[in-house]
Design goal:
alpha+beta; Jelly Rolls; three-stranded antiparallel β-sheet; 4 helices; 8 strands; elongated; Secondary thiamine-phosphate synthase enzyme; YjbQ-like_sf; UPF0047_YjbQ-like
């Protein structure tokens, strides 16, 4: 049977944040008893993304953030700045990184490599999205 849950990841400052444990905890019920399946996670925001990458050395996270800042600098003459100077920058970075991931499930667990983890890529300086209200990022997990 398909399973789906919407939940909120805690608010984070700008940067790459390892959220594997939060995702697994929120989805324990759906993962239980699944021998073989597919897990998708979709971020419901246009200024944050999701990716899978190195889960051990935190310098990977700072390097990824630095590289994205270099590729998509805030200093360009952006037109869409309604929510601040990081508005269009955040949207473009989300398009580059993506807002969803898909992982296999085996024996009730997400299948990740030894050094892989799920990242929330937060692109807003204010953290937690629109207006900096500190509400976190909503995501939808679907299991098939």
């Amino acid at each position: 049977m398909p399973w789906q849950k919407t939940f909120t990841l805690p608010p984070h400052t700008k940067g790459m944040h390892l959220v594997t444990s939060e995702v697994v905890k929120a989805c324990e019920e759906g993962l239980k008893g699944i021998d073989i399946g597919i897990f998708t996670l979709n971020c419901l925001h246009t200024s944050a993304g999701l990716t899978v990458n190195e889960n051990c050395d935190p310098t990977v996270r700072t390097d990824m953030d630095m590289a994205l800042d270099t590729i998509v600098p805030e200093s360009l003459p952006w037109e869409h700045t309604d929510e601040g100077p990081d508005d269009s920058v955040s949207h473009l970075k989300t398009s580059l990184v993506g807002n969803s991931i898909t992982l296999p499930i085996a024996k009730g667990r997400l299948v990740l490599g030894t050094w892989q983890g799920i990242y929330l890529a937060e692109f807003r300086h204010s953290g937690a999205g629109w207006g900096g209200r500190g509400s976190g990022r909503k995501v939808v997990a679907t299991i098939l």
